[in-house]
Amino acid sequence: QVQLVESGGGLVQAGDSLSLSCVLSGGTFDAYAMGWFRRAPGEEREFVAAISRRTGSVTQYADSVKGRFRISRDNAKNTVYLQMYSRKPEDTAVYYCAADRTILPTRSKGPQYGAWGQGTQVAVSS
């Protein structure tokens, strides 16, 4: 069974950079398309970014993070990253990693992903 474990969350100042990591175990990592989602306090879960399987040649971003966040993958480390630049207070949320083998090349809908991590808290102060 696939398991996902996120790390890298914390409290930072607006404008600072932070990188989140998500390690996949129990499956062949490069066979999975990966995604990042977030849930802010009192809000519904929303899509952040996604990357295609294998080489990760296709990426997709929510309009709210485009140009500020970057998703990447390292298949040798079974890890997907979310680099967050120029963060804003509204980026405060629990960030979740998701994976699925059936997605081609990327998807932004949560129900399309079959495996989820437990989440990591990111807080941005103004």
Description of the molecule:
The chain is mainly beta and 126 residues long. The chain is built from no helices and 11 strands. It is globular, with a radius of gyration of 13 Å. The relative contact order is 0.32.
Key attributes of the depicted protein:
globular; seven-stranded mixed sheet; 126 residues; single chain; four-stranded antiparallel sheet; mainly beta
Please provide a brief summary of the model.
The chain has 126 residues and is mostly beta strands. Helix content is 0%, strand content 48%.
Topology:
Layout: E1 3-7, E2 10-13, E3 18-25, E4 33-39, E5 46-51, E6 59-61, E7 69-74, E8 79-84, E9 93-100, E10 115-116, E11 120-125
Order of helices and strands: EEEEEEEEEEE
Mean pLDDT across every amino acid position: 94
Helix content: under 10%
Number of strand elements? 11
What's the end-to-end separation, in Å?
40 Å
Taking all Cα atoms into account, the compactness measure Rg is 13 Å
Low-pLDDT segments, ≥5 res: none
**Structure classification:** mainly beta
Shape: globular
The biggest sheet amounts to: 7 strands, mixed
Quickly count the helices: 0
Beta-strand percent range: over 45%
